[in-house]
Amino acid sequence: MKNKISSLSKSEDFKTLLKGKKISNRYLTIFFKNISSKSDKFLNVSFVAKKKIGNAVKRNKIKRRLRSMMQDALKNLNLNLNYSYLLIARKSVFEDKYSEIKECLFKDLIKIK
User: Fold this and answer.
1) Residue 21, strand partner residues
2) What pLDDT is attached to residue 1?
3) In whole angstroms, how far apart are CA 17 and each of 14, 35, 64?
4) In the structure, what pLDDT confidence band is assigned to residue 65 with cuts at 50, 70 and 90?
5) Taking the alpha carbons of 1, 106, 50, 64 in that order, is the dihedral positive or negative?
6) Do residues 3 and 41 make contact, with C-beta atoms less than 8 angstroms apart?
7) Is 91 in a helix, a strand, or coil?
8) Spatial distance between the Cα atoms of 38 and 45, rounded to a whole number of angstroms
9) Are strands 4-6 and 21-24 parallel, antiparallel or unpaired?
10) Are strands 42-48 and 4-6 parallel, antiparallel or unpaired?
11) Residues in contact with 31: Cβ distance below 8 Å, sequence separation at least 6, in sequence order
12) What angle do CA 14, 9, 37 make, to 5 degrees?
């Protein structure tokens, strides 16, 4: 079965995730928590790039890069589908190499298990 990424949409889901555990690195802050109302058939992930980072083009590029990295993580890592994730980007995600960011993200996702 191929797993799929789905986004969080409800404001209350974001609020409960922000009360959960978090891991930070120089590129991202990852909040994660088990939300009982979500299905464990999908990977529940939301990506946030604040306006402080740049204009809409930069923010959307950051979110596209992060979405691609999470697709690779879903294929290559054994992620816990019971958790919902919130990835908040920092400005360095736009400036640094894709491979470095991906490696750092994978290390953090392995820690979460």
Assistant:
1) 32
2) 45
3) 5, 8, 21
4) very high
5) negative
6) yes
7) coil
8) 11
9) unpaired
10) parallel
11) 17, 18, 20, 21, 22, 85, 86, 88
12) 75
Which amino acid is residue 3, in one-letter code?
N
Dump pLDDT digits (tens) for 19-38: 989 999 999 999 998 877 77
Tokens 């290390």 belong to 107
Q: Domains in the chain, ordered, with CATH?
A: 4-112 (3.30.230.10)
State the Cα–Cα distance between residues 111 and 48, nearest whole angstrom: 21
Place of tokens 């974001």: 14
Whether residue 4 is predicted with pLDDT greater than 70 in this model: the reply is yes
* CA 96/CA 70 separation, integer angstroms: 17
Furthest CA-CA distance within the chain: 39
Query: Residues 33, 51, 25, 47: is their CA dihedral positive or negative?
Result: positive
Q: Is 64 left (phi over 0), alpha (psi -120 to 50) or beta?
A: alpha
How crowded is residue 28: how many other Cβ atoms within 10 Å of its Cβ? 23
